[in-house]
Amino acid sequence: MTEPDFDKLAVTIHNERLKLLATFLNGIGISVFAVGGLAPVFSSLYNSGGPTLFLMLVSIVCFLTACTLHYSASTVLKRMKP
Questions:
Q1: What is the pLDDT of residues 33-75, one digit of tens each?
Q2: What whole-number distance in Å separates Cα of residue 36 and Cα of residue 39?
Q3: Is it the case that residue 14 has pLDDT exceeding 70?
Q4: Distance CA 54, CA 58 (A)
Q5: Secondary structure class of 60 (helix, strand, coil)
Q6: Entry pTM
Q7: Which of these, 55, 30, 57, lies nearest to 42 by C-alpha position?
Q8: Under a CB-based contact definition with an 8 Å cutoff, are residues 67 and 29 in contact?
Q9: How large is the greatest C-alpha to C-alpha distance in the chain, in angstroms?
Q10: In 3D, which of 2, 19, 5 has the Cα closest to residue 81?
Q11: How confident is residue 1, by pLDDT bands cut at 50, 70 and 90?
């Protein structure tokens, strides 16, 4: 029976934790984009008032936040060990 390679196991655990963190950040980014970026715009398009400048600014901020979270997730993945 061979001994387990604890260094390889530690690297695998480290990489899996990073992948979970990146997935979480990306999921939050998708949620921010859907709820804050898209939903208010579509809602205002179907109402009689139409989109306002404030609504567009909020949507742009949510879109940029979502992009930042997605970029953060990809940055986290760069910390994976070979």
A1: 999 999 988 888 888 777 789 988 999 999 999 999 999 999 9
A2: 6
A3: yes
A4: 6
A5: helix
A6: 0.85
A7: 55
A8: yes
A9: 73
A10: 19
A11: low
